[in-house]
Amino acid sequence: MNERWLNAAVVAGLVAFPLWALWMDEPFLITLATRAVILALAGVGLNIALGLGGLVSLGHAAFFGIGGYAMGILASHAQAYAPIMEWPFLIEGTKSMPVIWIVAMLAAALAALAIGALSLRTSGVYFIMITLAFGQMLYYFAISWPAYGGEDGLSIYVRNGFPGLNTLAPAPFYGLCLTVLLIALAAHWQIARSPFGLALNAARQSPARVETVGIAPFRLRLVAFTVSGAITGLAGALFADLNRFVSPVMFSWQTSGEIMVFVILGGVARLFGPVVGAVVFITLEHWLGGLSDYWHIYLGALLLGVVLFARGGLIGLVAGRGGHE
Amino acid sequence: MSLLLLAEQALNGLQFGVMLFLMAAGLTLVFGVMGLINLAHGSLYMLGAFVAAVVAGATGSFLLALVAALAAAAGAGALVEMLVIRRLYDRDHLDQVLATFALILIFSEGTRWAFGSFPLYLDIPPWLSGPVMLPGGILYPAYRLSLIGVGLAVALALYLLISRTRLGVRIRAGAADREMIAALGVDISRLYTVVFALGAGLAGLAGALVGAIQSVQVGMGEPVLILAFVVIVIGGIGSIKGALIGAILVGLTDTLGRLLLPLAFQTVMDSSAAASAGAAVASMSIYILMAAVLIWRPSGLFGARG
Would you state the CATH architecture of domain A3-319? Predict the structure, then answer.
């Protein structure tokens, strides 16, 4: 099957899913699908660094968590009617999603810029370990900083609002998240085709040649890492809004590992890799989780099988090799 | 703050550091020789602790428990190497990360399935349970002191193994040029299994030793694993000496940071704010140390390869 047709089928399935769930009278499934869509968005973010840039970041939970806490901090101040700071100028909390999203993306981008500037001095295994360590650093910071709940996290009473939409109902919120995901996918597609994306891809395959023609790989990678962090941060804000709860768990290294699993399960550097990966992951979690409390064993075995025997992920298995290989 | 407290905390930091070294040594050996990044190293640490707790509970002998932990972790390491890890040597780091992440899931859930979610406890043996008086009037737990001794003894033994024995020559040669030593007739796949099992055994030993001062539970390996990563990034990947120095630096920074940073903050702010700010910064201190080392030396203190 052609990868393009597969992608179209995935989009059609995601659009049709809430209608089917409403028809089946299972609104819970819409919430589950929203989870998959948001996690797919986090994966799309990572895929820009990992797929296009070849940057194996095991610390994307940092940006996911920052996005989540951006939402938690803004909304908790708004619901308590307490400004975040009054001096030197007044900053109030907010319950408006667009504002929260912008703050989450900016904060995550800033963190990605700083972490990237340090981590990208290294490469290979060092890069993996350092991104992992920075993720842990924020994890422990979130646990030991008592102002916003510390280890217990922060709860929000009511989901934040989006102009003209009832975000409290599952279906409109799903539609909103799906729209954001599709925009992010379009952005990935554009980036991959742009001169920047082509240069980034070249820097992944042969840094020396890229340098010879006068392009600095470090800068390309730093920009890619920052954009990647911002998108994952946006996913974090949506994820926190879905659960109306943020906690340090969003920063944990398992979260980083899972975001990476979505990308690999679907297929690295494939546009729809993270989407397929996240949908399969959530389906397995729901289905195997119902069968056995120890479903992670099966997940581990499946993942091991994909890594060892199905290089190119599930999309590679269905659509064959190619794409951006 | 008394000087005694400072000395005691410095010893705690040293003890933490040598235990981290046992973990980091295996990781850095496996990376140096096989070029493999192994996230499942923490699972072997956990396995060691569980086996020790079970054996000590059944036989009552702590020494037997240590031996069993070492043997079980080394055996599990050899088995995992032959079944899975062997297929990963010529893959890129991404595949290695994912496959070993999958191994963590299997190990952790398997342990939860076998032992349940409740922590087990491993008691300090009675002959090591009291405090000892050190020069200078420091009263220090005998068990923690012996951990320092065991850790340093292992470090010395590893040094002798790698610099003085035939196996050590092969390990060093394997790190330098694996095609060449295969061509010279060394059974490279057996060498890899031995090195992996050696690292696994050290991790299992560390798990068993630390298991007596912490609770033994699923997921205990991963925080230590990540600290061990920090250690070898600081020390330089592939270097045993770097792992030892990095481990002690990390142990001391973490322990003394938790003691001194809140006090340092107290000089500029009120005490409750200082306590929370100090605790927050102290929890990040080793990562700040790592960032500082990397800015100064991107491939670690003793690292040769990037």
Answer: Orthogonal Bundle (1.10)
